[in-house]
Amino acid sequence: MDVKLFIDRCTALGDKLRKAEALCCTFLIGVIVIIITLQVLSRNFFSYSVQGLDAIVRMMTFYIAMFGAILATHFQRHISIDTFSRFASAKYRYFLECIIDIWCLIIAFSLFYFSLELVQSSFEFGDIYTGEISLWILQLIIPYMFFNHFMIHLLNLINTLARKK
After folding, report:
1. What digits encode the pLDDT tens for the residues 97-120?
2. SS3 category, 126
3. Max alpha carbon distance in the chain (Å)?
4. Whole-Å CA distances, 144 to 37, 54, 73
5. pLDDT digit string (tens) for 8-58?
6. Residue 75: which of 22, 26, 144, 30 has the closest Cα?
7. What span, in angstroms and rounded, lies between the C-alpha atoms of 139 and 119?
8. Least packed by Cβ within 10 Å: which of 77, 94, 128, 156?
């Protein structure tokens, strides 16, 4: 398969994933606002609080943080310390981009692997988050996000290497 065609298909898939993740993030923010509003109203006016909603809001906040991190990576708006690349010539900047992407690939894959082990251990021990919700189900987003980071940096590395030709 042609490298350019492969890159174009991966980029198109990445764009679709980015849109779906942005939609999920927006949906979660809306749900959190509704849940918190209903929780505050029920506490203040009816002296009643639904058990477990605060824990669910905490988990949804974690999900928003994960989606925000992946969206920042998609748009390359994440925090980066790139002092060297700002002052480096084009030749060295290319080399630095490759090194950074390879380093990010190693870190993202390691985190993906260990997050899979976390989910597996939560499954094996039968951890419960709140009520009847199994913790491993809620943790599935963690390996997904690290795998997504891995794929984004792999595509960035392929783009950087293809650009050099």
Report:
1. 888 889 889 999 999 999 999 999
2. coil
3. 68
4. 30, 24, 14
5. 887 788 788 888 888 988 999 999 999 999 889 988 888 888 777 888 888
6. 22
7. 6
8. 77
Q: Are 32 and 60 in contact (CB under 8 A)?
A: yes
Alpha carbons 47 and 41: distance in angstroms, whole number: 9
| Sign, Cα dihedral of 33, 34, 38, 39 | negative
Q: Can you give the pTM of this predicted structure?
A: 0.77
Q: What are phi and psi of 133, to 5 degrees?
A: -85, 120
**Helical H segments across 47-88, by residue range:** 53-74, 83-87
State how far the Cα of 61 lies from the Cα of 160, in Å rounded to an integer.
34
d(CA 105, CA 96): 14
Q: Where are the domains of the chain?
A: 3-164
